[in-house]
Amino acid sequence: MAEVVKLLDPERIKKNPDNPRLIFRTRELETLEQSIADQGILVPLTVYEDRGSFKLLDGERRWRCALRLGLSKVPVIIQPKPERLQNLMMMFAIHNARRDWDPLPTALKLKELESEFQRRHQQTPTEKELAGLASLTRGEVRRLKKLLGLPQEYIDELLKELEKDPTEQALRVDQVLEATKAAELLRKSGAIDVPKEEKLRRAIVNKFRAGLINNTTAPRKLTRLARAVRRTEVSKADAENVIDRLIKEKDYDIENAFRDSVEKVDFEHSLEQAVGRVMNLIDEHGKRKYKVGQSLREALLKLVKTIRDFV
User: Fold this and answer.
1) Fewer CB atoms < 10 Å away: N or C end of the chain?
2) Cα dihedral angle (179, 150, 89, 14), rounded to 10 degrees?
3) pLDDT at residue 156 above 80?
4) Considering the chain, what percentage of its residues have pLDDT values greater than 70?
């Protein structure tokens, strides 16, 4: 049976409180508004009736534009009113494929979805169950959970950034997550304590915001420092020294810290691993009793000469 499209006054329609999409950027709305002004609303809104008004299931941007344009009628498809858990699940399912869905608002709604499931079933959903409820992968759920673990000041800061056009945003979710992971691993390595962990995270975030660090994955070089400290290849004192400089010196960035602490030992560790792999391959070649080919022989002789010159 075909769905019936009706016309409703947009003033009778209300936003859905369970919509995970919280950010509606002005420039995007203006583009859609112009399209609707020229061609009308081509895809009906989806709503459900609730106490004399109608709540949106899909089409909040179209509805907002209709209000801005002063339209008296908009096309809608009316669905039965869902229970709250079903409503949250429908919101995730409807919006999951949208390219402009922001992860932080999604994470906040995921928390509500988890709470509603727990209220209804008297148990916390497993990661697999939560992924199914939200039409997400388990990897996406884990990433959103990491966002929920950020201190509130960072969440507020990121939400404020999301109100800007993407080209104007000075700070992004992944940058804060990378800074958080790097600072945490350095604390776990014993290079810094908990108070300094937070100072380091804040320093990295501020340097992202200022544009001093412009590579989102740059903090991963600090995780290599943390590994070197655990392996006792870099002393805790040397690690703490560059971390203090990152915190205190405005123009001191992660590249400087990496070069001044772990670059040499990190490179040598990678070289050592590569040598180990070559030795294992040579050993395996011998076990298989392969005849050494001419090109391999020449390569090995060059390697021998290089090693002799090197050491």
Assistant:
1) N
2) -110
3) yes
4) 95
Letter string b/e over residues 169-185, b meaning 16 or more CB atoms within 10 A of that residue's CB = eebbbebbbbbbbbbbb
Domains of the chain: 1-81 (3.90.1530.10), 99-163 (1.10.10), 170-261 (no CATH), 265-310 (no CATH)
Q: Longest C-alpha distance within the chain, in Å?
A: 87
Q: Which pLDDT score is estimated for 91?
A: 74
Helix (H) or strand (E) holding 170: none
Q: Give the pLDDT of residue 230.
A: 94
For the chain, how are helix, strand and coil distributed in percent, rounded to 5? Answer: 65, 10, 30
Q: How buried is 143 (Cβ within 10 angstroms: 0-12 exposed, 13-18 middle, 19+ buried)?
A: middle
In the chain, the amino acid numbered 50 is D
Residues 279 and 307: beta-carbon distance below 8 Å:
no
- Contact assessment for residue 224 and residue 183, using Cβ atoms and an 8 Å cutoff: no
Write the pLDDT tens digit of every residue in 42-54: 888 889 888 888 9
Answer whether residue 96 shows pLDDT above 70: no
- pLDDT, residue 1, reads 44
